[in-house]
Structure formats: C-alpha cells, structure tokens
Design a protein that fits this description.
Length: 464
C-alpha cells in the first residue's frame, strides 16, 4: 500500500492524499482547492489521473478540502464519495458558490495574464460539474462502519471542526493482514460554541494528522462575548465606524451570530445594523438549522429558551448583490460579516477594499488565514496589501480574536490523539500546516511518544 501527498503538504490548503492498495484500488482522501495568491496554476492539474481513482472519502465541506471535487469529476472521476449527510448539504451550498466565484475571478486573472503575455487559464469547473459531483456523494453516519471494497472498510468519527466534519479511519486487508490508516481531517476544539466535542477513534497503525496550530496555544478567552462587545463598542460607538469581519460562511459566521444573538438577548448589544452579506452564509445558516443533531447541549438549551440562536433585531441576511453594494455606500456605524475567512474571495474583499483606508474602520480577524492570503497579510500587520491587483495602504485598525478559531492548538490536538497508544503507531505524517510549525508539532508528538513522525513534501509517495 502507498500514500501519495498531492496537497496540504508543507502548506495548509489543497488537501489531497491518495491511497493505493496492493491490488491497485485508489482511494482519495479529500480533494481541496489551493487558496491564496499565485495558486491559480496549482489548481489546474492534480498530479494523478482522476479517471483512475476508484473511491473518495471526504472529511468536510471547507473549500480547501472539497473545492476541487467538481474538477475531479470533470476530468473523469466517477466513483462514490463517502461523507456525512451534513457535509453533502453544505457542499451543495459551498461548491455552487465556489463555481460562481471562480467564474468571476477567472476574468480578472486572465486579464492580468494577458497583460503579462501569459496564456489564459480555463475555468476549473462549472455548476454542471458541481451537480455531477453531488450526485456521486453517499451519506455515511458517524461511528457506523461502511464497506468501500471487499478488502477496505471505512469509519467516520466526529472531528468537531465544522458541521458534519469527520476524521476518517480505513481498515485495509492485504496479504492476510490488516493495516489501519487514520486521517484526522481538521481537528476541532473541545469547547466549540455550537458543535459537539471531537470523538475518539480506533487504534491506528498509520496516522495522517493536521498541524495548522502545531506550534501554539490559543490565548485563553475567559469571556469571548465581552471581548467582542468591547470591539463593537470601540469601533461603532466611540469611532462611529464599520466593523468588518471576514469569516467562513459555515460555522464561524454562525458562531459570531450566536454570540451577537446572546448579547442582544442580554440587552448588551448596541442597536446597530448587522449584515450577514453572503448568499452562501444565508443558505449555510439554513443547513445549520437542519442538522441540530450535531449541536452541543449548551446551544440546544439556549435554542429551547430563546427560540433561535441565529436571529435577533437589526440582523439582516443579505443575498442580493445590489443590497450588498448598498452597504458600502451607507454612512454610519454597522457590523458586516462576510466570507471568505481568509478574505481571499467573495464580497468581503470589496468591503475591505472600500474601507481599508478609513482609520475609523476595524477589520476583525477571527480564524486561521494562510500567510499568502489577504487575511494573512492583515494578521501579520502588513502596512500595504494587494486587493484585486492594486496596492492599498492599511489605515483601518486590525483586531484578532483567536477564540473563534475552529482548529485545535497543540494541546488540544494532543488531547485528541490521546486515545492512541503511540507505541503501536508505526508512522505519523504531518499535513495541513506551514513547515516551520510542523517542525515544532513533530517535536511535541515525539515527546508524547510517537516515534516515527514525517513531514512529507508535495507529491511524495510513501510505501507502508
């Protein structure tokens, strides 16, 4: 059996890990889009033949894990895609949105390429490819084994990173022996405001583990709502400015809405217009309502008391593009929440572009942003940033709230892995992280008793 790493190798985007059994069966774990600056060509080719892949198992619906599935289908993949029902419902929303965003962004990309004398790029996929991809998805329940082939069994366990997110266990029988492979997907946090805690998982021989925050601990946030309220008050009441929050359309946006809903119910939220400016976030919130079985007990108690965790006075869900443009033209303080979380696509880029030179504006970053993204540049404190090919001076205030992060820090990830006997784990492969952070995470894993920890390069093939 071999594993080959075609994405999220010494980087955080483009998750793709190809398992090939001794009998030649190919199983792809995730099929994510590379995100960030200068990734257009990376998404054009896979490094393997999509038509040769037999099966796929998807950890969750985030675009850096699912965003190239329609292209995989476009280039010949016709096998089943195993994932949770909530993930399928979210992919229905997120992949359609991705197709539309790519179509718009491709025009700008090709205009720049033409000016540079470079050939134009083709569209990665369209909505027809999305339809085909969705038709190949097969729902799987958590903690219920499912048969992939006569010799391969799968199991999905709750990763608590996103609605429907899963870690993937494969049991592969070869030459009379079993090999147990585990892929963490993205590891969530035990105290997520909406989702349940991550599940434990069966003992593995080989582990593919994420490492996004392998070098750090999240700062303790004793009162996240009060911290958010202080930023709202400083920006919107004292400075009379706009609070702009890039946030992933699923889970992160709803967690913000839930916090604001609680503040409103407590009578502490100023009477300000709050805009959720994203058709995808609107639809994703509807999907969240459909899958409350994924929620933790605390929010279920709140819903039973309040009636709805995602609706309060002065909250406006915006789908229409003209309404979105009107937000930029309005005067006075307000709160604008829009995807993407890395500020790399969608309406948020326009909101940032139109307000980044206003010292009264605050841009609040509430989750991970890769270093080569607009969100990463703002988080890093860059004084100038590039938006739609133009340079802008950063005059707006930039605030960071890591308490909203959906990725576990190294202590939380070690807790997640504590269900394993490290002596029985033959190898650990670190993915989905920046190389310097992975080196730190590798050291922590070795200190915890995991003896053979590797950091694969892009395209590297490993024989198990």
């Amino acid at each position: 059996m071999t594993i080959q790493f075609f994405g999220a190798a010494r980087t955080v985007t483009g998750s793709k890990h190809l398992v090939t059994t001794d009998s030649g069966t190919q199983i792809l774990l995730d099929c994510g889009l590379f995100q960030g600056i200068n990734t257009d060509e990376l998404n054009q080719t896979f490094g393997f033949n999509p038509a040769r892949v037999d099966y796929m198992v998807l950890s969750h619906a985030h675009i850096d894990h699912a965003g190239l599935i329609p292209r995989l289908v476009k280039q010949g993949f016709r096998g089943p895609i195993y994932t949770t029902l909530a993930t399928i419902d979210l992919c229905d929303v997120m992949l359609r949105d991705s197709a539309r965003i790519q179509e718009r962004d491709l025009e700008r990309v090709n205009e720049r390429r033409t000016r540079r004398g470079q050939p134009e790029l083709e569209a990665l996929y369209d909505e027809q490819d999305v339809e085909q991809a969705l038709s190949q998805m097969r729902p799987v329940n958590y903690n219920q084994p499912f048969v992939i082939t006569e010799d391969v069994t799968g199991l999905l366990t709750d990763a608590a990173h996103l609605l429907g997110s899963a870690s993937i266990s494969l049991t592969i029988r070869e030459n009379g022996a079993e090999k147990r492979l585990f892929f963490s997907g993205d590891i969530g946090r035990p105290d997520d405001k909406i989702l349940r805690r991550p599940d434990s998982f069966p003992q593995a021989d080989y582990i593919i583990c994420e490492s996004t925050y392998g070098d750090r601990l999240h700062e303790p946030e004793p009162d996240m709502k009060s911290h958010l309220l202080r930023i709202v008050h400083k920006t919107c009441i004292e400075n009379r400015g706009k609070l702009i929050i890039p946030a992933f359309a699923v889970d992160r946006t709803q967690e913000l809405i839930y916090a604001l809903d609680q503040l409103s119910s407590e009578g502490r939220l100023p009477k300000l217009p709050v805009y959720i400016d994203s058709p995808m976030a609107v639809k994703a919130t509807q999907v969240m309502h459909m899958h409350q079985d994924n929620f933790n007990p605390d929010i279920l108690v709140y819903i039973n008391k309040d009636g709805d965790a995602f609706s309060f006075p002065n909250l406006h869900y915006v789908s229409d593009v003209n309404e979105s443009k009107a937000i930029n033209n309005r005067q006075g303080p307000c709160i604008i929440i829009a995807p993407s979380g890395m500020a790399e696509a969608g309406r948020i880029k326009h909101h940032i572009k139109n307000n980044i030179d206003d010292p009264q504006t605050t841009i609040l970053l509430v989750g991970y942003a890769s270093p080569n993204s607009l969100g990463g540049a703002l988080k890093r404190g860059d004084k100038e940033v590039t938006i739609f090919g133009d340079r802008y001076e950063v005059k707006a205030r930039v605030e960071i709230m890591d308490s909203f992060s959906a990725h576990g820090d190294y202590r939380e990830m070690l807790d997640f892995l504590s269900c394993q006997n490290p002596v029985l784990v033959k190898r650990v492969f670190l993915v989905h992280g920046e190389y310097e952070k992975q080196l730190v995470w590798k050291d922590k894993l070795e200190t915890a008793g995991f003896q053979h920890v590797a950091i694969p390069e892009m395209g590297e093939k490993v024989v198990l």
